[in-house]
Structure formats: C-alpha cells, structure tokens
Specification:
Layout: E1 15-19, H1 24-35, E2 39-44, H2 47-59, E3 63-68, H3 74-88, E4 93-96, H4 111-137, E5 144-148, H5 161-182, E6 187-193, H6 206-216, H7 225-236, E7 247-250
Parallel strand pairs: 1-2, 1-4, 2-3, 4-5, 5-6, 6-7
C-alpha cells in the first residue's frame, strides 16, 4: 500500500551530535537515535563514559563516534565538530544536552565562581556548539538544533539562581535563534525536563522524591531519561519541519498544576 503522507518520520542515516552523552538524558538520547538508525557522535568530558556508550551502541548494530570534549572550551568544541564531519561526512542534528548544576545562595562566598561555571557550560557552550555546527547544518536538507533546558527555564527554585539564569537564557537563545535561522530552514527548539531520574537527582532520597512527585507532579512520579529523549527525537524528525522556537516541558504536568 502506498503512503498518502509526504513527510518522513525517520532519522535513519542522519548525523546527530549529542553533548553530555555519557550519562542520564544524553546517554538515553544517543542510544535512542542510534536505535532509530542515526549516526551518533557522543560527546562528553567523561571519555571513558562515551567510549563505553559507543561500544554498546556498536554492539547493538548502530554506528557511533566517541568524543572527549569540555563544551566550555572553544577550541575543543571546534575540534570535536570537525571530527564529526570528517568521520560521518556531514551533520544534520545538534542536541545541546551537556549541563551541570551548582546550588549557591546569592551571598555565598563561592557564588561568583558557581555562576560563571554554570553559565559557561549550560548557556555559553550552547552558542559555541551552534556556531561551530552552523556551516555544516546549512548543508543539510533537514537541519535541527535542539537545546535541552529545564523547567527551571519556566520558573525558579531557591538557592539555584545560577542554574535558573542559565536555563532561562537557553529558552531565550532558542527563541531568538529560531527567528534568526528560520529563514534558512534551520529549526531551533528547546526541551524542558522536569524532575527526572538522573545523576543530578540521584542524591535526593527516594522518599523525598516520592513526596515531591505526589505533591507537585500530576503523574505523581519522576520521569525517566528515555521519556525526555523521545521528545528530543520527535523534534529532530524531518517531519517536524514546522516546529520552530518551541520551548516544550517534559515534566509530567508540573508546570501547569496550580494546586
């Protein structure tokens, strides 16, 4: 039976660069893209983590490239993108997932240091990656930039202002570049995960997670990294060609609940 629709829902053969790919949502994203036939460049400061990630992807029949890179270092970013293009012959999708968290009160002695580092990794690094990838994305017939923000981009938590400021910045950057790059057919969107079971939340006791989820999340649970990864994949599809400038919560309903 012939298809009636025209737009593809496949990323098979697409070259995808995922940062922060050694663990958590980045790991799940890299694996999901690989499962769907994409050629995956997995980047992270944890060189052993991405090496193992690539080993497991290849053992499952996928194709992947491990990149050890600190996304806050401009020269390292440029070199990593060049390696991706040399290895795979191009680039179609950038997933800016790498991020760190650092709790700090505004009058804490280490506040300035925490603020600078969090913004360097969680916001400025996004611009470094985008600028390095743009010449190659412009050659793609379905170029996608997907920034991983947070529900902290839509609200705020006490003692977490560096992280909240960075993630609000990611949302603003996403919207601004969607306008700027949309004329070239490059879509720019953001995903805002809520409470997810990752290394960032691993230190929270299980009973505290349960209480929080029951009080704040309509689905009454924490999410899993793969649930976020599926939204990221959806935005990368060639068929997602008219989704641009969206800032999408993946939070079990946390941000819409009033009571």
């Amino acid at each position: 039976m012939s298809r009636l629709s025209k737009l593809s829902r496949s990323v098979a053969g697409r070259v995808v660069l995922v940062t922060g790919a050694a663990s958590g949502m980045g790991r799940a994203t890299a694996r999901l893209f690989a499962d769907e036939g994409a050629l995956v460049a997995a980047a992270d400061r944890d060189d052993g983590g991405v090496a193992q990630q690539v080993k497991e992807i290849e053992a499952a029949g996928g194709r992947a490239l491990a990149l050890a890179v600190d996304v806050a270092v401009p020269n390292a970013v440029s070199s990593a993108v060049a390696q991706v293009v040399e290895h795979f012959g191009g680039l179609d999708v950038l997933v800016n997932n790498a991020g760190i968290s650092a709790l700090a009160e505004i009058d804490a002695a280490n506040y300035g240091e925490a603020f600078d580092r969090v913004l360097a990794v969680n916001l400025k690094a996004h611009t470094l990656l985008i600028r390095a990838c743009l010449p190659h994305l412009r050659k793609s017939d379905a170029p996608r930039i997907i920034n991983i923000a947070s529900t902290e981009a839509l609200g705020a938590t006490a003692r977490n202002s560096p992280y909240a400021a960075a993630k609000h910045g990611v949302a603003g950057l996403t919207r601004a570049l969607a306008v700027e790059l949309g004329r070239e057919g490059i879509t720019v969107n953001a995903v805002c995960p809520g409470p997810i079971n990752t290394s960032m939340t691993a230190a929270i006791p299980d009973d505290a997670k349960i209480r929080f989820a029951r009080r704040r999340v309509p689905l009454r649970r924490y999410g899993e990294p793969e649930e976020v990864a599926h939204m990221t994949l959806s935005l990368a599809l060639p068929a997602a060609s008219y989704v641009n400038g969206a800032v999408i919560p993946v939070d079990g309903g946390l941000t819409v609940q009033n009571t």
